[in-house]
Request: fold
Amino acid sequence: MKGILSPLKLKNQYLICVLSVSIVASLCLFTRNFFDHKVVGYILLVVVSLLAMSLDILPVLLSAFLSALILNFFFIQPYYTFHIYSTEDALMLVLFFIIALINGVLTHKIRRAEKRLQIKEIRVNTMKLYNALLDSLSHELRTPISAIMGAIDTIQSETITISEENRQQLYSEIEKASLRLNHQVENLLNMSRLESGVIQPKMDWCDLKELIYNVLDHLKEDLQFHKVAVEADENLPLFKLDYGLTEQIIYNLVFNASQYTPKGAKIELKVEYNPDVEFEYNPEKIMPCVISISDDGNGFPEEEIDKVFDKFYRLQNSKTGGTGLGLSIVKGFVEAQNGLIKLENREEGGSVFTIGFPALVINTKEISNEIAIN
Reply:
């Protein structure tokens, strides 16, 4: 049952209580001739309180009982006996035991109340997050589904005559809506993988230029009103990365830029090979592979830049739609490959995402030489 400790854990807690009280009492024993036994009583009360902050109630009660016995036996005269001749000392010992019990019980109850409050807050926040997700999904999924159903109804209608050109246009709309729907489902599946911790990158040699152009080809409909530029060295080496994760990273960032920048904005993708240069955003790491995706749009509000990678977070003044998962998935996939990602606004306007990977590198000339030799 929830809230009940296993026998082994309970046994360990009893052991912690006995050792804690014994060690503190032993240290006090060496100073017995310098301090009054009331001071020792206060110290043991503090020990019981500290134990109550992290342990179960029964071990705490044991620590209170053991503290009272030790205080009587070792620190109240006559020493090494349970006899008490002074009424004041007897009253002090009784009060010590009562206060230790009350203190332990109250501290334990406060701790349990705090835990219940934390659980309640977590549940409330989780419900808020998932309500936000459902609200955004109701728009993001319903829009492409409606487009697909409407186009199919028109094509199959026996009462409406459509030209071949219009038919092909409807097929194109179905394809675009299907790709949009697939993108949203992919994001949900990817977030589920990140949440469950099952992502194990499959590292292999990647041609990043080829990967980028594949992504741009998939997004050509979304990018038709944008200027896109790719900058990469002709002799760019191959990097050992997870092709699928890296492709999804680039896809989400470029798609995000296409959706949240005005028509005519420029989106630039740049790949650099920095073999010995420390990564600008983490001087302690060498990141041979650096990818940047920038635009000349409106940029991000400075006060929200630190939040954009949070799950389900959407900019306050952003347009309707979006699940707020894209950038959190990007960050998760980058970190799954031991990489780092940074977002900042450009001085000339717009924003830039910079990603660094500590990837292994192989020059394409080396591969050509190996093939020639074989």
Observations:
- Residues 87-140 form the longest helix (54 residues).
